[in-house]
Amino acid sequence: MHRFVYADNSATTKISKNVLDAMLPYFTEGYGNPSSLYALGQQARAAIDEARHKVAVALGAKKDNEIYFTSGGSEADNWAIKGAAHEMAKKGKKHIVSTKFEHHAVLHTLDALKKEGFEITLLDVHEDGLVRIDELKAAVREDTALVTVMFANNEIGTIQPIAEIGEFCREKGILFHTDAVQAVGNVEINVEDMKIDLLSLSAHKIHGPKGVGALYCRNGIRIETLINGGAQERSKRAGTENTAGIVGLGVAITDAVSDINARCEKLKALRDRFIDGALKIERSRLNGDREKRLAGSANLCFEGIEGESLLLWLDHSGICASSGSACTSGSLDPSHVLLSIGLPHEIAHGSLRVSFSDENTTEDVDHILNVLPLIIDKLRAMSPLWERIKKEEKGE
Ligand SMILES: *Cc1c(COP(=O)(O)O)cnc(C)c1O
């Protein structure tokens, strides 16, 4: 019974040995400041240049200088959206189109821009967890500066029609940003083919370190400076570089992209085994399209229970999972993502997200599937909501 299963890889991942080994020298003998002219500094500079090249290659970017290192996905999202919006406002374009189920790093950034006088249109997401390109086309206006749509959703794992959106935005001369934090390393991405102008990513979701990420910004696109100071990151984001973190990101993204197909196949098998098993539970449902989803991610609702209680009991059995996003847990509001796909409040409360990595095994999935129905039975036995559901079933 004392098995430990980590199934919350959409929240964060364990750093890989390969990544850690590559980073360690930059905490010890490789401590030079990358801006220093002596060899110790220039070695760090070379390591950063190499990492930048690796990220560019992984995304199919034309030039290394289209990659800017940041402190993570949230910073990249903030910078891309505010940075592009402020530049476009100079041309009188102050309208932004996005979706209702973006990560809070995007939604709260849009809230901040709204207070500055930008107009925001948030597209509905359908029950299958996908946005519709026709609705996006209908939402853009003459003064639309930017479209920002996430590549893959962090709670329900659904993958959006990014290439189609890119094609349309390019045609219309509208900037296109995508939060690809969940997609990088899990979906094949090519910023050129997909006509993406700005893309955010984060290392800690792909077995890299926390506190480092990157923004891809296509050459020729102007974004406002984020941090004033030294000349780092082409004078747009000042501050002595996080050399070890950046090196870790370079290795993590290269590893993630290099075995993407084999890994996704393995993850899909785990995910589908989990979905098939969990759907045997009475009054359960899978949230989001069955196929157009991340290989390792599944989100289900079980009627008549509270997601939070379920998580605590799973933890007792050594299982780490989530009720949605790590950022909303702690609040008692149901997930904005589940509400956006039309789930009623009481059902959205009973959600469970499991997200696997290639360290998970079939035995892990079976352990969850053994424990889960017992916990759900126990919780339902105490639930007034479940009692009501059962009464209604009987027509009482
Ligand atoms: C995790 C995540 C972020 C935030 O990335 P950090 O590196 O933790 O700041 C942004 N968007 C999505 C979709 C995420 O999953």
How would you describe this structure to a colleague?
This protein is α/β, with parallel strands linked by helices and 396 residues long. It is 40% helix and 13% strand. It has 13 helices and 12 strands. The chain has helices at 17-23, 39-59, 73-89, 104-115, 133-139, 162-172, 243-258, 260-278, 307-316, 336-340, 345-348, 362-381, 384-393; strands at 5-6, 67-70, 95-99, 119-123, 144-148, 175-179, 198-202, 213-217, 284-286, 297-302, 319-320, 351-355. A 7-stranded mixed β-sheet has the order 2-8-7-6-5-3-4, sandwiched between helices. α4 links the parallel β3 and β4 (119-123). α1 runs antiparallel to α7 (243-258). The chain binds pyridoxal-5'-phosphate. Pyridoxal-5'-phosphate binds at residues 72-74, 77, 103, 105, 150, 154, 179, 181-182, 202, 204-205, 213.
Task: Tell me the layout of helices and strands.
Layout: E1 5-6, H1 17-23, H2 39-59, E2 67-70, H3 73-89, E3 95-99, H4 104-115, E4 119-123, H5 133-139, E5 144-148, H6 162-172, E6 175-179, E7 198-202, E8 213-217, H7 243-258, H8 260-278, E9 284-286, E10 297-302, H9 307-316, E11 319-320, H10 336-340, H11 345-348, E12 351-355, H12 362-381, H13 384-393
Parallel strand pairs: 1-11, 3-4, 3-5, 5-6, 6-7
Antiparallel strand pairs: 2-8, 7-8, 9-10, 10-12
Helix pairs in contact: 1-7, 2-7, 3-4, 8-12, 9-12
Bound molecules: pyridoxal-5'-phosphate.
Features:
about 400 residues; three-stranded antiparallel sheet; globular; alpha/beta
Describe the structure concisely for a colleague.
With 396 residues, this protein is an alpha/beta fold.
